[in-house]
Amino acid sequence: KVGRVLDSEDLGPHRYDGATAAIDDERENAFPWGEANGLVYTCRAGFLDTAHIREQVDWVAFFISQIDRNLTTGTEVDLTPEGAERRLILKPIPPELIDRYGRSEVIVAVAQWLAYQGSIWHEIAQWYGWSLVNLYPEYLSGFSPEDPISNAIGISLLSGADIEEILASEKTYNRQVDQLIQIAFEDLEPVPSALGERAVRAVDQVWWNSEALLPDNAVVQRRYLKTDTTLEPWLLPDGLASPQLRADLREKCGGQPQALVFRIPEALGNYAFSDFATLEITPHGFPAEQPIFEEIGPTITQQDFPRLMQNVRAQTLTALGPRAHLPD
Predict the structure, then answer these.
(1) N or C: less crowded end of the chain, CB within 10 Å?
(2) What are phi and psi of 267, to 5 degrees?
């Protein structure tokens, strides 16, 4: 699970949908030239997986395109399967909401919320055994410490964006994302890869277990299980870092590192996005075999996520121990 540690300048140019393609060699655009992905350690958000950042900004762009075309009429759109058949159900968005906040702000915010719901299901599905590449169930990947925050950063990149620019062309979009990633990383304060590798080694045997063999679930021993719309990342705990590593991180970060807080929009004014946007999910394969779906039914929506997360949390603490949901 723990991939290569990158310097922020090594990320390469963004390519729409490239992060997903890079780990699925059955797709025509698999392993796209130029885009590089891996772990980056940052002063303000801890470990980040750049593939997750890229994947989620692309999902936001996709939902923007769907909402933009169907803002006043609503629509139903089948999404790519992820351990389930998934469908976007969009009702007409209230015109008074658009009048008050503006077309672009409404569309981007709803798209971000939908992408976040999709990212939560992605992690749940992985915990329940779904795997993108079908080599083995991805129990080990769901809710790994870097994934949910990386998702939130990718989802946030297009905040305030002009949807006409986003949808102008794929080339324009890719260049805009390149710029937005660099701007975001300036705030996140990435450290050099050599220092990031030392941070990885510091959490070995606590967050991750480099001695465990795939597909052992214990490869990832700590899981970030928060799924509300306000998320605070895990920074490297002082208790896991050597005095020298703590000193080097403080020097690079300009003092004691302080985590940023990431917020995903879920409403504008009194208008909750869940009133007119739904992800309908019908699990299949490994996820569908979970007993929880016998209780809540074969088809769910994002409204069922809190109940599913209770189940995931209970399974996590049973499998990985009572502190599996904590950074130290």
Answers:
(1) C
(2) -165, 160
pLDDT class of 76 with cuts at 50, 70, 90: very high
DSSP assignment of 79-137: E--SSEEEEEEEPPPPHHHHHHH-HHHHHHHHHHHHHHHHHHHHHHHHHTT--SSSSS-
Which strand (E) or helix (H) includes residue 54?
helix 50-69
- Measured between its terminal Cα atoms, the distance across the chain in Å is 19
From residue 77, give the alpha-carbon distance in Å to each of 20, 124, 278, 289.
Answer: 20, 21, 11, 25
Sketch the domain layout of the chain as residue ranges.
8-320
Mode of pairing for the β-strands spanning 46-49 and 39-42: antiparallel
Distances (CA, A) of 287 to 172, 219, 280, 298, 320: 38, 20, 15, 11, 19
Angle CA 223–41–23, to nearest 5? 70
Residue type, 320: L
d(CA 155, CA 81) in angstroms, rounded, equals: 20
26 Cβ contact list (under 8 Å, min separation 6) = none
CA within 13 Å, CB half, 136: 9
Q: What is the pLDDT of residue 22?
A: 37
Whether the upstream peptide bond of residue 215 has omega within 30° of 0, thus cis, is yes
Span 113-131, pLDDT tens digits: 999 999 999 999 999 988 7
Distances (CA, A) of 268 to 96, 184, 323: 11, 24, 36
Q: pTM of the prediction?
A: 0.93
Contact predicate 72/29, CB 8 Å = no
User: What angle, 0 to 180 degrees and rounded to 10, lies between the N-to-C axes of helices 103-127 and 305-320?
Assistant: 40
Write down the pLDDT at residue 27.
Answer: 36
Which element (helix H / strand E) includes 281?
A: strand 277-283
Return the minimum-mean-pLDDT range out of 14-23, 33-42, 123-132: 14-23
- 34-38, 150-154, 167-171, 192-196: segment of lowest average pLDDT: 34-38
